[in-house]
Every structure is written in C-alpha cells, then in structure tokens.
Prior knowledge:
18 strands; Elongation Factor Tu (Ef-tu), domain 3; Rossmann fold; globular; single chain; 6-stranded antiparallel barrel; alpha/beta; 8 helices; 7-stranded mixed β-sheet; 20% helix
Amino acid sequence: MSATEATGATPAGDSPRAHRGTIFVEEGRVLQHTAAEAQQHILRIEAPRTAQRALPGSFVHLRCDSALPMRRPLSIMRASPSEGVIEVLFKVIGAGTAALAKKVQGDTLSLMGPIGKGFSVHPARPRILAIGGGVGIPPMVFLAESLLADSRADWKPLVLMGSEIPFPFRTRPSRILVPAAPAEAIACMPLLDEWGVPSRLASGSGFAGCFNGFVTELAAQWLAALSDAERAEVEIFACGPTPMLAATAALARRFSLPCQVSLEEFMACAVGGCAGCAVEVHTPGGRAMKRVCVDGPVFEAQSVFR
C-alpha cells in the first residue's frame, strides 16, 4: 500500500498552507462491503494514513472508477488508527457512486484524505446533541465514537437521525432510556446502543419506533423538555441536507445554543485549489466566501444560516 502527500492543498486559517502535508493520497484496499436497503452501502477500507489523522467531520475524496476522472467526497463514519481502517457510508445517486457500489473485498481505490476542518467539542457543554439526516449520519457516528475516548468531560451525547428512506442499518428498540424524548420514539441505531450512546430515529415514512416527523422537530421536543440547567450544557452538531441544517440553525437560535454544522457541497479538487465549493459566510469583518472543502466542511451555524 503506497501513500504520497497531496501538497497542493490550500487550507483554512491564517496560513494559506496550514494543511500542507496533512492530506494524503493512498491506495486503499476494500476489506468489507455491506449493502443496505435503498441502494445504501458501507465500505470498510484499509487506509492507514487517513485513519491516523481523521477527525469527526473530515472526509475523503475517492476515485470511484478508473474511467471516471472526477473523485467523490464522502464523510468518514468511523476511523481506527490502530487498525489503519476507515468506514464510509454512501447512497447510489449517479455514475460515481454506482461504480463504487460494485467494489468487492480486495479491490483497491485511490483516496485523498483526511480533508477538512472537523467538529470541536467543548467540555463546558458536555450534553452533545448530534443531528444527522440521510447521508449526513456518518459524521454523527464518528463524533459519538470519538467521545468514548475523550476523558476531558463526562460527555452525555444524544444522537438523533432522520431519514425518509430505510435507515442503512437494522433498527431495534433502544435499551437506553432518554427521559426527555417522546415516548413513541424508541427505535435506535444498534451500534450506538452497544456503545452506551443513546440514539433516536425520526421519519415521515412510518417506520416502526421512529418519531413521526422531521428530526429537527424531535430535537425541539427533547430540548424543550430539559431543565434550564440541563439546556445550558447543550451544544448542537449537525450534518445533512441544507434545509435540515437551516432548520437546525433556527432551532439553535430559538434555544440560544451554540451549533456547528457540516455542509454538503459538490466538489472538484477538494483541496482548496478550484474554489468550486465556496459558500458565503458571515465573519466579524463582514461577508466572505469560504471553501467548504478546507475552510469547512464544519462551520458555526449562525455564520452560514441567518
């Protein structure tokens, strides 16, 4: 397995070269391919350099097939530095992801990673409310897992997931009580339950045990049921479709809570050179254009959604 540094990155921050030497091109090897309902797939990939440096919110840029020159950005769902392995979740939506869905154990694929600014948790706000919608679920799983090894605080995460298609895992009733959650919302992600991390699911598609409505509506009910002291310990983290992120930002304003969002944008180079993924954000110095790939993908919610 070979790896070389991607030295053309132009990153976020005061230094235009702060990411130089931190993004790598690796020949990843597919260790496992799990297919789920609704053309959703999970790839477990051997990629030691990416796994060593990946953070919740960072992503990889994959070459899906030798016949397709453009890479595809995929959020990292899990990373094990000790095993040198990452996992990504994706849904087939075009030629690139269709080619990726044909990968089998032993196949190799070129990837660049880890790319982007990740989430930052703060011990003063240990009640982590992680909200993931659709293919925005993976960073929330990574964030939850990272807290298990973070001894800076007594973290109390709650992961809420929303989907209008079947979830990319087999749901079941949670064994973990969430006192402020609606009684009818009992379905969970089993992996999180095994870790001792409470999770709840939302959908308008009538799936058993799921909250009937948007995941942000479920989040609003949970937040409203907290005491003032409990709510003062909450920070919100979210990834998903733009309308969901806008609703999450509005929710954070309503409850006067800090909120970080991971944006989803089409990307060409993914290392800051083309600026094709630039979005307008509000900064102390006024409006500015920031690249989602290296200035993000994580931003303060109120800087993007007003």
